[in-house]
């Protein structure tokens, strides 16, 4: 059925996110979504402590359950949950927070405005408030419910980007307002019915309770480059060998300054090079020719190809090795950054 669809991607240890995709009529579509490690996930060893109950629900990678703090006096302002991140210290550049509620829970108790504080146990005492510093303050309407009442789309998970990455072992969510205390104009009675106080603060206890479903923490996205190559298995000495190299960016981020360097076999005579993007040069030192291809930028999921032709002039095993690197944002997996091809060269 053609149309625009909303998708939810979720996995233990990776959190959840939502995205929208339009699918045309008669279109066969394979959807690939790159997930990042959620360092505030219990599946990765994170532990939550602080005010309220069901704190583990904040770090369970789903919106199906939530954390609750009630009886907060004089209001929810200052209610906190501290998450010790899994795996030690990490650079954190963004968080995802959800204020989703469960059936039957009052919608005015949902989180609205919050702060994020961070501590690094390598440089500070994270058991003390003094060890934490403010790294993010949300907008007043981070979860933008409005009169007469907030609705579910106002409360679903959202991404909040820090102004700069921070190294942290602990993150602290600090509540500033819930929907009751934060939606403008609903705190006090605004009708002429003396028998009923319709104010959310003056006429109910909703200002003393707050709920949130998720706190997820992510490092800056990386670009996982990989390289593979093929060539002839056997060849007579003096023949031309054609090597095919494929560089791929497995994401999730785009890569810039991508460079592939191919070292030809000993005494191989370079004949030609062709790349699908960028420019290539060659240099020979001590009878080994290196071909350097500056491929430039590569989007997540994209590939670049390089074809090199060389004459193999020495019998035995001719070894050709290629390596790939990037200037930014950084490669998350260096184990697939080199590839080697061996050719048996016969007389």
Account of the protein in words:
The protein is mostly beta strands. It folds into 2 domains: 3-218, Sandwich (Jelly Rolls), CATH 2.60.120.260; 223-346, Immunoglobulin-like (Sandwich). It is 1% helix and 48% strand. It has one helix at 179-182, and strands at residues 3-11, 15-23, 47-50, 67-69, 80-84, 90-98, 111-119, 133-137, 158-168, 170-178, 210-212, 214-218, 223-230, 234-236, 240-252, 255-263, 269-275, 279-285, 288-298, 303-311, 316-325, 338-346. The strands form 6 sheets. A 6-stranded mixed β-sheet has the order 14-22-21-16-19-18, with no helix packed on it. A 5-stranded antiparallel β-sheet has the order 3-5-10-7-8. The protein has a 4-stranded antiparallel β-sheet with strand order 13-15-20-17, with no helix packed on it. The chain is elongated and about 105 Å long. The N and C termini lie far apart (62 Å).
């Amino acid at each position: 059925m053609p149309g625009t669809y909303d998708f939810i991607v979720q996995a233990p240890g990776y959190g959840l996110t939502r995205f929208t995709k339009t699918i045309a009529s008669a279109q066969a579509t394979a959807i690939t979504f790159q997930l990042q490690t959620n360092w505030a996930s219990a599946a990765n060893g994170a532990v939550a402590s602080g005010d309220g109950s069901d704190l583990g629900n904040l770090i369970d990678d789903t919106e199906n359950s939530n954390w609750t703090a009630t009886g907060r006096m004089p209001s929810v302002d200052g209610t906190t949950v501290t998450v010790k991140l899994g795996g030690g210290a990490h650079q954190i550049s963004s968080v995802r927070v959800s204020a989703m509620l469960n059936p039957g829970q009052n919608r005015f108790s949902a989180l609205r405005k919050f702060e994020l504080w961070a501590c690094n146990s390598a440089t500070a005492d994270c058991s003390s408030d003094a060890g934490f510093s403010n790294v993010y303050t949300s907008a007043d309407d981070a979860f933008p419910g409005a009169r007469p009442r907030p609705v579910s789309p106002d409360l679903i998970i959202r991404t909040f980007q820090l102004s700069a990455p921070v190294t942290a072992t602990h993150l602290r969510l600090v509540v500033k307002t819930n929907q009751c205390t934060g939606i403008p104009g609903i705190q006090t009675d605004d009708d002429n019915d003396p028998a009923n106080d319709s104010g959310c603060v003056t006429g109910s206890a909703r200002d003393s309770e707050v709920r949130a479903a998720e706190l997820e923490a992510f490092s800056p996205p990386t670009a996982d480059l990989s390289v593979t190559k093929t060539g002839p298995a056997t060849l007579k000495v003096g023949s031309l060998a054609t090597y095919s190299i494929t560089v791929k960016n497995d994401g999730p981020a785009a890569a810039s300054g991508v460079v592939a360097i191919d070292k030809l076999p000993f005494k191989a005579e370079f004949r030609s090079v062709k790349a699908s993007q960028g420019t290539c040069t060659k240099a020979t030192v001590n009878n080994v020719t290196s071909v350097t291809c500056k491929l430039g930028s590569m989007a997540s999921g994209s590939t670049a190809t390089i074809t090199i032709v060389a004459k193999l002039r020495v019998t035995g095993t001719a070894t050709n090795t290629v390596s790939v690197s990037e200037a930014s944002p950084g490669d998350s997996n260096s184990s697939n950054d080199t590839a080697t091809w061996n050719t048996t060269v016969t007389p």
